[in-house]
Sequence to fold (157 residues):
Amino acid sequence: MSRGGRRRIVPPVDAVAERNKRKVRFFVDAVWNEGRIELIDELVAEDYVGHVARLDAGVLGPGGVRRLVSSRRRALPGLHVQIDDQVAEDDLVVTRWRATASRVGRVSDPGAPCCVGISIIRLLAGKQVDCHELCAEVGERDPSSIGARTVDLHDDA
Fold:
């Protein structure tokens, strides 16, 4: 009971939404951070379609996800994705995240900010089936390392 003798109403936890949030967190930790791309087949549906900003073509199926993760991990040594926030409802999980990596040519500088983003992922039967992702690069990255313009959010100019 809360103050004044009133009973506090707590909404029921959406078990599916919570399970989906855990699945997305596991994908980020295991696949993106640890490089365990062998798990992609059990976490991503065959008919998966990923819509990633600045990519000309969609990311299709587990093979497309494998290629994307592998290429990003090669381009960004020491890549680590941290989840800042997650909100879920039914089969959708929205994740706000930030990534750090070694600066190009400066492996001794791990953990430099490289991008921030938001992903909206739809899951069915525990597998990712759809993703819309927007991200922006930050910091002192070499734009040629991943083929996009660098945005420095710390510049006062």
About this structure: Residues 141-157 have pLDDT under 50 and may be disordered. The longest helix spans residues 15-33.
